[in-house]
Write a structure and sequence with these properties.
The protein has an 8-stranded antiparallel barrel with strand order 5-7-8-9-10-11-12-13. It contains 2 helices and 13 strands, in the order βααββββββββββββ. The longest helix is centred in the first third of the chain and has 6 residues, at 35-40. The chain has one domain. 25% of the residues are buried. The protein is mainly beta and 220 residues long. It has helices spanning 35-40, 45-48, and strands at residues 25-26, 54-58, 61-66, 75-76, 90-107, 112-120, 127-132, 135-140, 149-159, 163-167, 175-181, 187-199, 203-219. Helices cover 5% and strands 49% of the residues.
């Protein structure tokens, strides 16, 4: 489907590829006793109903996995909160897409925390999206000015100025991302998978696989 939107112009001067791996990311306090409270405190009842995690135990280790996750260990910075959902309306073009893995491990007996942040290599993606009339439309951009390819169109809701809930018939079956606007007015979208490993009284590890996308506004 060929959409009547303008073709892409020159890329902006800002080099978003040089943004640090912790850009618009809030990591928990260096006190593992507070970790659960830190990453759960923003989740609303409506968002919690969308979370379907997988939990199991093996050889004394308790595992938990969830994707998409509304309460990752690496949260979207609260300074990006969207105070007016109307500010997200319009057609947006991606400037940066990347996958980052954040891992926090606590050895309880030593009272020590180990933190790693790693960029996961992958081919760059170029996407565009439109937020209008209560619907989000995701499109894939191609080289050479070829027409955009529509990847999907669904309803959406912005919850608590922080969550983007994309859904079909029921909100409870929707997919959750964290959404915000940075200081330059760019849309920041975080889609996460989380994994936890715990051995009671010995250690706990939290891992967030974060797909971060930063978009510029093409037209309101």
């Amino acid at each position: 489907m060929k959409l009547p939107w303008p073709r892409r112009g020159p890329r902006p001067a800002a080099d978003t590829t040089r943004l640090p791996l912790t850009y618009c990311v809030a990591l928990p306090r260096p006190d593992f006793a507070q970790w659960d409270a830190d990453y759960e405190r923003f989740v609303t009842p409506e968002i919690r109903r969308t979370q379907q995690g997988l939990s199991f135990a093996k050889n004394g280790v308790t595992y938990w996995y969830c994707q998409p996750a509304a309460s990752p260990h690496a949260q979207l910075d609260t300074l990006t909160r969207v105070d007016d959902a109307q500010r997200l309306q319009g057609h947006w073009r991606s400037l940066l897409t990347r996958t980052i893995v954040y891992r926090d491990s606590a050895v309880l007996g030593e009272k020590r925390i180990y933190r790693t942040v790693q960029l996961r290599p992958g081919p760059p993606e170029r996407n565009e999206l439109t937020l209008a009339d209560g619907c989000i439309t995701l499109l894939a951009a191609h080289e050479g000015g070829a027409p955009l390819t529509q990847l999907g169109r669904k309803k959406y809701a912005v919850i608590s100025g922080r969550y983007l809930l994309v859904y079909g018939l029921l909100k409870s079956g929707g997919a959750v991302s964290q959404v915000g606007l940075d200081a330059q007015g760019r849309l920041v979208l975080h889609s996460c998978a989380v994994a936890e490993r715990k051995v009671a009284g010995r250690y706990q590890t939290y891992e967030t696989v974060l797909n971060q996308a930063i978009f510029e506004l093409v037209r309101p």
